[in-house]
Structures are given as structure tokens and as C-alpha cells.
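quick one, five chains, predict together pls
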Amino acid sequence: MILFYMMIFAFVGAFLIYFAGKSFPRIKEILAVVISFLLFLFVALLYGKDFQINYHNFLGFHLFLRINMFSWLFALTITFLGFLSIIFSLSYMKDKKNNAFYYMNMLFVNIAMLGIVLAGDLISFFIFWEIMSWSTFLLISYKKGSALPASMKYIIMSIIGSLSMLIGILYLYDLTDTTIISQLSHIIRFINKGDVIFVVILFSIAFGIKNAVIPFHNWLPPAHSEAPSPFSAILSGILIKMGVYGFLLLFYVIIGLDIIFHLTGLTIVLNVLAAITIIFPTFLAILQNDAKRLLAWSTVAQAGYIFMGITYGTELSVAGGIFHFLNHAIFKALMFLAVGAIEYRTKGIRDLNSLGGFIKKMPFTFAAMLIGAMGLIGLPLTNGFVSKWLIYKTLILNGSPFLAFAALIGTWGTILYSYKLIHNIFLGQLPAKFENIQKAPFSMKMPMMILSTIIIFFGILPGIPLQFINKIIVSFGYHPLNVSLFGIVSDSGNLNIINILAATFVIGVLIVLFFRSGRKSVRVDQYDNYAAGSFIPKEKYSYTNSFYAPLDRFLNSFLKDYIDIFYCKSAALIRHFCNGIRKIYTGYVGSYVMYILLFLAVLIFVQLNWSVF
Amino acid sequence: MNILLMILSAIISLVTGMFFLGLARKIMAMIHWRYGPPIYQPLIDVIRYFHQRAVSHGFIFDLGIIISLIGSLLVVFFLPLGNISSFSNSGGLLVILYILILSPLGLALSSGESANPNASIGISRKLILTLSYEFVLIIILLSLMSQYQTISLQEIVMLQARKVWSFASWKLILPGIAYLLILPAMLGFRPFEIAGASQEISAGPSVEFGGKYLALNTINHGLLHFITIALFVNLFLGGGDLFGIFDSISGTFWGSFVSLIIFLIKMILIFVISVFINAVFPRLRLEQATKYILYYPLSIAIVGLIIVVAIN
Amino acid sequence: MDFLYNYIYYIGAFGLILIGLYILLVKHNLIKMIIGLSILETGVNLFIITLGYLDNGTAPIFSKENLESNMMVDPVPQALVLTAIVIGLAVLALALSLAIRLYDSFKTLNLKKIKEQKW
Amino acid sequence: MDRNQIGKWLRSPQKMSNKYSLHAVYFCTGCGIIEIPPSITTRWDAERFGIIPAPNPRQANLFLITGYVSLKTLKAIIRTYEQMLEPKYTVGFGSCPINGGMYWDSYNTIKKLDKYIPIDGWIAGCMPRPEAIFVAVTHLWTLIEKDMATGYIKYRKNYKQYRANQEKIYGSLDWPPLYK
Amino acid sequence: MKEITYINPVLLIAVPLALAFIIPILKFVWEKSIKWIPVAGFLFDLIVSITLIPIVLQKNIIVKIGGTTTPFSINLVVGPAGLLLSIMISLAGFLVAIYALKYIQEGDKTKYHILFMLLLTGAIGVVLTGDIFNLFVFFEVLCISSYALVGYLGNRAGIESSIKYLIQGSIGSSLLLVGIGLIYGQYGTLNMADLAAQIKTADSISLFVPMFFMITGLGIEAAIFPLNSWLPDAHSSAPSSISAVLSGIAIEVGLYAMMRILFTIFAAESFMGFLLFLGVITLLIGEMSAFSQNNIKRMLAYSSIGQIGLIVFAFSIATASGLSGGFFQMISHTLNKALLFLATGFMIYRTGSMEISSFRGLGKKMPLTALFFTIGTFSIIGLPPFVGFASKFLIFKAALAKQELLFIILIAVIILTTVIEGAYFFRIIQTLYFKESDDKSSKQESAITALIPMFIFALLILILGIYPNWIMKFIHSAASELLNKMSYLRSVLG
């Protein structure tokens, strides 16, 4: 029952924060940090446990909580990031009104996500899923203004997804007479393929919407960019990964390996979707001028990698997908937090065209952002490299060069937009109005520091997380990977991080020595800069505006978010149609009487002529 | 042994890189009907730079250029030079692709910190251009990897030695042509001298580089020439192998030496061709370059990849 | 003509109902519509009465001897109609009082012009 | 390369490399620029001496001021000179930078350039032919070798005086002093 | 067999009715107390109904009035279904009466309370009666008092809606009466059980014509498309406490009567397929019309139409689980919509406008009211852990259990409507909490007597959402009673 008590404790704690926050303003922050940390601790202590408990009976369905390696990894990530972003929020939310509400919802989201990964049956999965949806909605709306349409988009997509999932669950229930995951995995083999595909489609809509797979991605960019930054970190880091979790659960736990990859065409469709999800948002991200929106598009693209990994279905790809989930959670959270720190210090500016030169003012944030971006690109010695390497390798060696092409070119696009992000915020000229910007406060630095450390740590020692992932994929029915502490051994090309590390270190030392042996350089300020012999006035010598202008010109004409446009157009159409529909209530009684009589007449007439009833 | 190989390959690559820079200037001068500078002129330049009192714009300004050079040198270790290969067995082509990123990224960070708009424009151009030729390069590499069913460059070279050079195998002729077409862009030669356009944007990314920064940048430039061409030679021209003539002495010291020489000769050949192209073409605009790359080399490469995949 | 003779009350009742509905459908004036309602109700009442009506039937009271039960009219419809009439009256009164208030507010009784509540 | 030069290279690589790697900034205000293209192209081929035009002052160590210096361009000359990295050499090219040349009585022309920046050498003539440039370069080599091309050291030492002279013309300069 | 003693269910009708007519007398004696009369009356009803639950779960209670044997007497049949609704009615009546203590400030309060009590008494009568004409009479009591209450405020909108409602309602009752007459003419009985015993199927012309007449007549009160034109006007113009009752009780009682007639008397299985579509269309039209409303009460009214459509859909599945879903949805809709209307009532009262845009920033000014409103919306959309989720879940489950393509398509349509519903309800929530209001006046929470009923509703929504099992047994038996014609017959006719 420990799981159940943990959830109860967390929910009670969330309410407590809200009500404590009304009377003792300071205590809510302490409470929030303590509760989230305790959650993290609880989950960490559950390592290696494997059991499930029945905690409730809902309309004749037995609801279960369950923990095993698979859900443990996700739960740990959730609680860990939740803890860090709550710490980050301490200063981010300090001056905001109504932050008890914020903390409460933040905990709600975390608990709901925890519930999702710990759910042992589909009904409680769904219930937590919905709690997550609405608390997320409240949090996205938190910043008011332009956040409102964003959260509307989110909640509508979310409702569509969750309802289709509900249908899927009930359909599955009709077929199998159970919703308990561990039982479903035994029974599912007796169902015919058509039904399985139908269920997979229904679930895929729900998970695809959360995971922002391409035709369902349109909620994500506005939602991520408008949410408060610590929450964006959660949103991008783990919330959308609930879709990943769902896909893994559906494909590998419920349906199982031996069925899912024998469904005709399904994997091909999913892989192609994943490829589109990688390429298209990457290029859209390059065109963005809002830091958080850029990161949001990047999130869509990276979710595409994860999706590619888990739908490709070899052990390398699944391991890579799960590992990339973990990595993406870390570095994208880090980047969102860094942008959040900037946003906090500049009082809410995140327009890439008006920032610049912050490296001189916020060097720590820059370092964090740089490490995050390196992870995002997947440079060697960061964690992103290993997971991407796994995915690429399996794509190439299993004869899917076009998918591999999508993944690789996505990486290059990633370089472009990450560099744009770094350049336009931190490099270049510092505008005069930001001369007095201060460094990020400690409560912001600490989470960033921890996350940066993890990125490097996992990058150098990928063996540690890969061992956990190995256990997960073994439980899916795969062969374990041959993991060493520093990499992966296999027949067709090894990966050995230690070589790269050693070489980098040695070369680095040599080059630095060589560099230092040269004549010492003079430090000059940013205004001592070549400008064809003139001294350029402040504010005039910056190239942050439309950084990739040629590419913009090149792409803008045909690269738009057509799907979003399509959705918006159809929403407008529906609205129009709805407006038309209610015109039948004309306001004149005679017509109402006519409806009544017509109804009666039609009933009688139909029955008399055709006797259908 | 490995360390020795590393040092050896580093030295070879540095020397060859500087030699290439000088060679390029000399050949250009000769095409211009000039006498031209001595072939070691880049070395003199580097020494001069190194003794100048540079200006620095900040920590990343220093660090970026160092990262850039580290990246370039790292790639060298992953490339088999003839029979010499330090650790081409730890990640293969994918790692090379990734470490290739380091060098431009370090340069970009460094010049971004310099806060000069010319540098930013240069970086922006460089990245866009790189993106466009990377489309082609990735497809080329993918066709090779699919063809040989490995991601290890070492194995690709070995397989070539055993069978026949990639360029001579009809399946890989289209990727080879595509690689040749994007080679000037990868080397930063005209008609793709867009990022470092010295007349237009004052040498672009390196506008604020002087002194030792410029020295490192020049060395890096040479190394990049070396890497680009070495990659091509390894992928398509059979590395240090010359139609199997010297198979009898392979494995011995002389074998390695001969294969290294053959390798370098092949590289020089390719480089000279690229310099000729550089000499006779004017510069394209970025849009034109991107369009060109995305039309011709890309379509050729895609056709090549389709052929490779279809046959396998 | 037998048909007409046998069913004259039914025809009358449904005639009244149809007239009422016709008025409700076509007329705009509230008072006329209320009249239509009344006619409709009357028709319904007549119909129900007719159900229990017997030609030359007597009241359903066993007051005389040799009175068969099939000689009596059915008492239930009469009870029903009584209730229905009361209800109808209540509705009518309410409707008329509302009509007065309506006229006070809108200065018209033409329902085509009173269309504030719509859509 | 001379055989005896190798010894020099080993003894003082800085001096030698400065000599043989003169990357020039051409300050092209007047008619002097017309003489520059022949000097760097096929006819005279400056590159054989290691002289190439540098794309910006940060990468250059030779500053050629070709032509008259007006009040307006002086500012750019000072800025460019200050942005060049040490060691750096300046050569005034033609008579205009020397004494105003044909603009000797113009109100708007700087007559004594070395009041504002140090000049290591002059090339007289109106205009000097390209050969004169190479003569000047060989002279400059000699000066460098003998440690006599010390304009930049002079500038650093007497910066206050130079700055005062500069500010006399312009009132105040936009940029902060190069040296404290 | 031990005879179980229980309170006579007639009191459920008689006490409120009597109290209603005491009110005008009491007015002269002790005027202040009259507003407490409905509270007392419905509290009594609530307690009595709840005490009846265990008995009714075993067997139906039949109360004969008039002393004669069953087919000829007017009788009350207190089955689980009827009792369920009567509990809901008395609960809603009780809470709304508390709400009205402070809320009803203008107009003739005496009349309001009388009419309010009559309305709910009529409703209880409809659900408990076993006699088809008695049903009509109670129905008329309900209708007439609601006509009057809609126009209670006496403003333009109220009068207009009231008269329109009256015209349509009267047509409906006339049609119902015609139907009853036609049935009576054929079978000579008015007792539902007796009729049911005689009618096996409804496929002859002499049966389905009265059936259609009755369906149309009841359908007007039950607000089935296209008979629901009165509803948006009436619900939006009435005082909010009345809107709550009308939306939460009146239409559901109409629907119950309709279902009772369809299931018990006519056993019209084949008609259910048609009703299925009608339900979905009603749902669709209701939600679509609500989508772009700016008047909040009108929006809620249209939403009620939608919910009724969903209930019709659930009932039309005509399986035990479908009916349970329908009943559950009824409960959930009563709770949700009553809560929403009550909260809205005070929000309108404070802002003086029914425009949604005028509710900006109310989350700060009326935090509790806004919170309750939010709970109501979340529940009505069907988000867990609120009761709306449980009911929607049951309906979906029942529909999918049929395992037919048709049901999947209809479910898809229902999903579409839920999305629309989510869209407009979440918009209000955003307006409440996340839009800054112009005036900076301080807190103006609702009156405490209004907050208490809202709180109870919200609590019920939450508790029933988490523990729906507590009432499932009751609902199952209600469903099986409605579905299982024969057991009903047996219990009434003996």
C-alpha cells in the first residue's frame, strides 16, 4: 500500500500548500519543496521493487498501482525534475501573485504524472491522465494574456486524445474483459488483428497528441512558450513524455513484441510519422524568434526522435528511445530553465531579436544553456550523443537509410537553432538597456547546475543509465544490450566514450598549452570592435535580428505549420457552423409550434409508410 | 602504440593541412601568372600571428577556438590515414559526423562572443551552407553505410581494399559524384566562399580574430581541408590502397609507409582539382549556393542512395 | 353517412384540435393564440368525453333497477375531463395574465415582433 | 629562403615572421589606391614578399595610408590604427599624407599625419609607382630587423599626447582611450 | 414473513403540497418564516426518501389511494427508479430552497415559495405515480408552476419566455392528453401496470399513434430536439434558483416519464433505435448552440439540452448498463447543472450582467463561488475525479458493450460534442481566473446561505466521482426496474 499512501500524501500535501499559502505565505514554498523532495526520495527508495496493489474499486473496475523497473525510471525522472523545477520556481514565482495556486497545480501535475506511470490498470491510467490534463490547462493559463488561446488549444487537443483513449480502453475491455495491464498482456494474443489495430489507433491518437507527433502537434508550441518557464521545463521534459510512456506501455507491455511488429504497415506508418516529426519541426524551429517557442518546436522534433526509437522496434532503437527520453527530459528542462532565468531577469523578454550579449552578465546561465544545447545537438561527451547514436545505428544497419537521413538532418537543423538560441541570447552585443542585469539567483542556479552535471555525467558514463534501460528492454522481451560502463560493444561498430574522452582531454591540454604559450591577449569590451574604421554607436551594432535571414527567405514561402492552419481553419468552420445551427431557435413561437407538429407528423408518417419502428 | 599513432596522425594532418594552404595559394598564383608566395608562407603567417598581441572578447572567445581545434584534431584520429588509424573503432562514421560538428560550433561560439555583426553574418551563412551540403553528405554516407552494412569507417576502407574502390563500383558512382560536387562547399572554396568572404564581410567569422586566435584558426582551416579530402579519399578512393598493388607488403612498416604516401598523393590530387575550381569560379550568393546544392548534388545523391538500397 | 353519424363527435373533436393547432401555427397575435389553445383544449376534452359517451346512456349510478352497466356512460373520462378543464382554466388564466404583462412590457401582442429571446 | 636566414629564423622568429608576413590594410582615400591593384596582381605580385591585403585591421600588421587625409577620414584612420594588433607598421603613401600635398592649403586636410598616429615610413611622390611600394617594403624590413620600426611603441608611450592632438580636432572622441 | 414498517410514501407528495398551501395562510401569521417552509418540506422529503431506500431495494412499495383494487385505483408505485429521482428532487429542492433564502429578494416571495414547492411536488408526483392520468395531472402542476416561475421576475425576458414556454407546454400537454385518451379508449384503464400487461408490442397503428402523441407531449418537457425551443429562453430568463431546478429536475422528470411510458407501457424496443439518433442529434444541437453563446445562462441552458441528449442516448441503448449510465448521468447532471446555475446566479447578481465577458476576474472577487463553478464545469465536461466522469464513463462503456459499428460512430459524435463542450466551458474558466477585470473592488463573496448548498453539491460531485460504487447498487436496481417490465407488472398487479 506504500504507493497508495504516497499518492494520498502527495494529494493532501498539494491541498495543504494551497490552504497554507492563504494564511502563511512563506510556508507554502517550504512545503512545496519538501513534499516534492519527499516524493523523489520515496520513488528513489522503491528501486528494484516489483509489485502491484489494488487500491480502489471504481464502478466495478479494480484499480491498481504498480511499480517495476519500467515505471520506476519514469517515476524517478518525473519526481526529480518536479523537485528541481519547484526549486527553480522559488525565485521565478517570488513576485507573482497567487503562487499558492501555482504550487498546488504544479504538484498536481507531478502527482498525476506519477500516477500515470504507476498505474497498474488502464482506468486509473486514464483518470490520472485526465487530472494531468486539467491541471496542466490551469498552469498553462497561469500567465494570462496570450497564454489563454494556447491553453485552449492544449485542452481541446487533450480532450480529443483522452476521449479516444477512453474509447480504446473500453473497447479493449469489451474484448478482453479486463483493464489490468498485467492481465491484458496475456489475453491480448487471443484478439484478432483488426481489433488490435483499431485499439492501437485509438490509443495512438491520445499518446500522439501528448507526444506531439506530427498531425497532433499543434498545441505544443504555443503551450510551451506561454507557460511559466519552470512549468515549461516539466511540460517539455516529462509531460509530453507521458505519450512516450503510453506508447511503450501499449506496444511492449500490453500488446507485446511478437504481435505489434507483425501488424501490417503499422510500424511503417508510425516511423514515417516520426521522420516527419523530426524534420518538419526542426526547420520550423529555425525560423522562430521567440526563445521558448523555438525550444517548443525543438521539443516536438526531439519527441520525434524518441518516437522513432520506440516505434522502430529493435533493441537498440528502443533502448535509444528510452534513453533519449531521459536525456531529453534533462537537457530540455535545463534549457527551459535557462531561458526562464533570462526571462526572470529581463522581466519577461524572450524575443530573440531584442536580447544579446548576456554571456557577460549571466555567465552561469550561459554555461548551463551551452551544455544543454550540446546535449540537445548530441555532441560527444554529452548524454544526447549516446542515445542518438543508438537510434542512428539501428536505423542504418537495419536498412532504413531514409529514416536515418531524417534523423541525421534533424541533428543538423538542431545545431542551427540551438546556435541561434545561444547566439541571440548570450553572444553578440549586449543592448545598453540590459547593462544592469544581475546574475541568476542561487535557487535558479542550483537546478541548472545539477542538470548540467547530469548531462556530462551521463555523457561520459552512459553505461549507468543504460543498465537500467537494459533491464527495461529485457522486460519487454528483447535481448539485453552489451553495455559497458563507457559505451556499447557490438559487432558492427562499437561505441567507446572513454577513447573520445581521453583523446579530447589530451588534445585539449596540448592545445591549451600551445595557446597559452602565445603572446598574452588583451581583454577588450564589446564596443572595441571592427566596424570598417568607425565607432558604431551603442544599440546599432548587433546582428541578432532575423539571424537566418537567407534561410527565412528560402523557407518562409513554403514552410508553414500547415497542420495548425488546417486545425484553426476547421475550428473556425465548426464555430461558423455552430453559429448557424442555433439559428433554428428563431424566437418566433409559430415556428416552434411547427417543429412540434412536424415532429409528430414525421413520426406518424414514417411509421405509417414504412413501419420502421 | 596507439599514442604514437595519434601523435603521428596529428603531425601528418597538421603538416598536410598547412601544406595544403600554401599549395592553394601557390597554385592560385600560378594560375594568375604570378610567382606567388613560398609554399611555407602560411607557416610564416601563423608564426607572425602567434607573436602578435591579440585582443580577446571574453572567455568563450578563447574557449571556442580551442574547442574548434580540438574537434578538428579529434576527427583526424577517427580517420584512417592509409594504414594508420588511431581509434577508428570507437563509434565509426556516426561519431565522425558528430565530431565534425564541434569544429564549426566552436568557431561559431568564439566569433559570436566577439560581438561583431560581420562574424554573426558569416556564422549564419556558414551554418546555412553547411546545412544544405550536409543533406547531401548524409545521404552519401548513408549510401556507403547501407552498401557496406557497417558504420565503421575502418571497415569501409578495408572492404574497399578487398573488393574494389567505391568509385569504381558502379553503385557508388553517383554518391561519389555528389561528394565531388559539394567538395568545394565543404572546403569553403569558391564558388562557395560565402561564409568567409573577406571582401564582403571582412572574413566573416574570423573578423575579430587576430594574433594567436588567427593562428589557431588558420591551423584549423588547414586541418579542415585535410579532413574533408581525407574523408573523400577514404570513402571513395580506397584510402591508402592502390588497386591492391602493394598488398604484398601490407602489415609491415613499409607497407604502412607506402599506403600513407599513396593516401597523401590521392589527397593532393583531389585538392588540386578543388583549387582549380576555386580559381576559375566567381562567388555565388548564399541562396544560389543553397539552391544549387539542393538541386543537383542532392538529387544525384538521392538517386544513388535509392539505387544502393534497391540493389541491397 | 353511417360513418359520419357514428363518428361525428370524434370528427368534431379532432376538427377542434386541428383548428386550434392551425391558429397556433398561423396567427401572430397572442390573444388569438390563447384562443387557439383554448380551442385545442376543448377539442381534447371533447375527444375524451366522447370516449365514454353512449347514445342514450345514463349516468353511471345504479339508481334504477334493471340498469345494465353497458347502458351507462363511462364515468372515468368525465372525471378526467373535469380535471383537464380545471387545468385548462389555470393555464388560460396564467396565459391571459401573462398577456397583460407582455403588453405592458412590449406594447404589442404580435409575437412576430417579440423576438428578444432567440438563438 | 637564404641559407643564412634559417639562423635568423631560429634566433628571432617574431621579427622574421613580421618581416615576411606583412598583411596590409590599404586606407584608400585618394588617388593612391589606383597604384594598389597593379602592385598586388600579376604585374608586380606583392604576394611573393608575403604581402597580401588583409580583410580587416585585426589580421593586418601593415597600414598603408594612400592619399590625402581629410578631417573626416582621420577619425577612421585613428580607429583602424588602434584596432590593429601590435606589432604594427604604418606607411604613408604619396605626398598628401606627408604634408598635405596639393591640398596643402585646404582647411579640411590633415597636413601632418604623424601628429595623430605614428608613421614608420613615408613613400614620397605624387603618385609613387608600385615599385616604390616594394622599395618601401624592403626598407621596412630593414627597420624591423634593426628594431627601428617602433611606431606602435611610441604611440603607446606618448598616447596621452596623441590623444590630446586627436581630441584637439574633434573635441572628444567617441571611443574610450586605448591605453590608460 | 415480517412486515416491515415504513413511512407512507404518499407523504412525499402530501406534505409539500400541504405546506405549499399553508404558506399563504402563514403569511398573515408569521411572514418571516415562509421562506423556511420549502427548506423544511424538502428536508422532510429527503429524509423520508432516504429511509425508504432499503425497503424499495427489496420490493416496490405500492400505495393504493381510493381503496379499490389495483387496476381501478389510483396508486403510487415507489420503485427504485422513482425513489432515486424523488431523492434527487428533494435534495435539489432542499438545497435550492436554502439558496433561495438570500437569493430571492424581489417580487412576491410568497408566490415564489408556493410555486417552487408546487413545481417540485409535481415532479415528485410524476416520478412516483403509477397512473397515467395522474402522471398527466402532476405533470401539469409541474408545468404550470414553472410557466409562472419563469416569468416570476416580471421583466421583459421573463414574460416573453414564459408565454412562449406556456404555449409550447400547453400544446404538449394537450397532445399528451390526446394520447392518454386514445389509450384509454382502447383499453379502458389508466393504470400503467394494467396497460403494460395488456400491451405486448406497439406495432399496430392504434398503439403507436397514441405513443407518438405521448412522446411528443412529454418530449416537449423533456427537451428533445426539435421540441426544445422553449428551453434556452425559459432557463435563461428564470431566476437562477429556478433555472437550477428546471434544468436539474424538470427536464429529467419529463424524460423519466417518457422512458417510463416507452419502456413499461409500450415496450417499444424498436423505437429505441430511433431515439438513439434523436439523443445524439439533441446532444449535437445543444452543444453546438452553446458553443458561441455569450450569455452564460443561455449557454448553460443549451448545455442542458446537450446533457439531456446524452441521457436519451444512454437510455436508448436499452441495456441494463445503458440505463444505469442514463440514471447516473441524470444524477450527475442534476448535481452539476444545479451547482452551475446556483453559482452563476450569484455571479450574475454581483456583476449585474449575464455576459460571460463581464465575469472577468471573478476568481479573485468570489473565490469560493468561482471554485464551485469550476468544479461544476469540470464535472460536466467529464473530467475525473468528478461525478461527470463516472457517468460518461458508464455511458461509453454501455455503448461500446454493444459492439456495433453504429455505436462507435455515435460515440465519435459524442466525443465531438464533448470537445465542443470543453471548448466553451474552459473559456469561461479562463474568463473567471485568467482575465483581469477592470474594476478593482474588493472581495464580494456570495451569501453564506448560497455557499452552503453550493458546497454540498460540490462535495457530492467529488464524493460520487471518487466513490461511484456507493450508489451503483441503487442505480442498477433502478435500471433493472425500468427495463424489466415483467417484474414491475408483478409488483403492482400482484
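Chain A touches chain B through 76 residues (CB under 8 Å).
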